[in-house]
Design a protein that fits this description.
alpha+beta; ABC_SmlMolc_Importer; disordered N terminus; five-stranded mixed β-barrel; ATP-binding; single chain; six-stranded mixed β-sheet; ABC transporter ATP-binding protein; ABC_transporter-like_ATP-bd
Length: 356
């Protein structure tokens, strides 16, 4: 997904330059650098403790780096207080004032900035309409669902027309259906408003669904920053491949830039080992079940019907298992115990060292 030209003009570039941060003996950020284009939405994804929230807090001014800079537009804001950074932030907790209506909550930041009542009401009405809550403007937090409260929090952040929008796990407290609906709403609003946005999440689907680019973090470092489709199909490291989506680890041999995987010779991706024994990282949808000999034989030990597709676990004679994802229409004839042959569809794979 790409931000519109109009939206891109509205945002500012953000640069994180060689950020370093430690807490006691624990390194949270280890020389992290990242640039966000004007109007771009970048999601930071990674396991707990990888440094993604620390990076966001440093951008917000809620924490200070031990070294490095944060630049917004042409302005170095590293030493600028959070209240002077012109940023909107939405947290996991809705943090609405319970004694205020949705409209009053949205107006609050504008009031602090000295806007008169007429201007506050007009702007609050505008952003509440933007997030689809015009009909709920007079409700208190206790009268709204979790999804509605988070929309109010988003509207409050946008009301001040920030140069940067920061989202810290804003959907993790919601149920799956509401989460999916609201993530799409956030993306629609972000594209319409054009604010440069940094989105922190541990949810892979969330990051891949709405971001222009996704950065995968590991132990304080940015392992890969790419468009979602590139990140998924061409991971730069074994960590990225294993963390984003499901992955099979298939023993293989590499020679002359090609790997022997499940009876096929295929090219290796950048970052693969040069030669010798390794492990091919293969996604379930890069495998298929075939009737004829030629693939890797095995027995079906588990079947999962997941709507438009099915996932099949196949146990090979050596005891290792392969997870295969196929269209549901091709799976009805299979049963637990069926003897099958698994074949590789991919034309290139990432191969890591066997001990990684």
């Amino acid at each position: 997904m790409t931000a519109t030209t109009e939206a891109a003009r509205a945002g500012l570039e953000i640069r994180l330059e060689d950020l370093r941060r430690s807490f006691g003996g624990v390194t949270a950020l280890d020389g992290m650098s990242l640039s966000l284009a004007p109007g771009e939405l970048v999601a930071l994804l990674g396991p707990s403790g990888c440094g993604k929230t620390t990076a966001l807090r440093i951008v917000a001014g809620l924490d200070e780096p031990d070294a490095g800079r944060v630049v917004v537009g042409d302005r170095d804001v590293t030493d600028v207080p959070a209240s002077k950074r012109d940023m909107g932030m939405v947290f996991q907790a809705y943090s609405l004032f319970p004694h205020m209506t949705a409209q009053q909550n949205v107006e609050f930041g504008l009031k602090l900035r000295g806007h008169d009542g007429r201007r506050r009401r007009a702007r609050a009405t505008e952003v509440l309409e933007l997030v689809g809550l015009s009909a709920h403007k007079d409700k208190y937090a206790s009268q709204m669902s979790g999804g509605q409260q988070q929309r109010v929090a988003l509207a409050r952040a946008l009301a001040i027309e920030p140069s940067v929008l920061l989202l810290d796990e804003p959907l993790s407290a919601l149920d799956a259906k509401v989460r999916a609906q609201l993530r799409d709403e956030i993306r629609r609003v972000q594209l319409e408003v054009g604010t440069t946005t940094l989105f922190v999440t541990h949810d892979q689907e969330e990051a891949l669904a709405i971001a222009d680019r996704v950065g995968v973090m590991n132990q304080g470092r940015l392992e890969q920053l790419d468009a979602p489709e590139v990140l998924y199909s061409r991971p730069a490291s074994a960590f990225v491949a294993s963390f984003v989506g499901l992955m099979n680890r298939v023993p293989c041999q590499v020679r002359d830039g090609r790997a022997e995987v499940l009876g096929r010779r295929v090219s290796t991706l950048a970052g693969s080992i040069d030669s010798g024994s390794g492990v091919a990282l293969v996604r379930p949808e890069q495998l298929t079940i075939i009737d004829q000999p030629g693939g890797s034989p095995g027995a079906v030990v588990h079947l999962s019907f997941l709507g438009s597709y099915s996932r099949i676990t196949v146990r090979r004679p050596d005891g290792t298992e392969l997870l295969v994802q196929v269209p549901a229409s091709t799976a009805p004839t299979l049963r637990v115990g069926s003897t099958v042959s698994v074949s590789l569809l991919a034309t290139d794979v990432l191969v890591s060292a066997a001990d990684v």
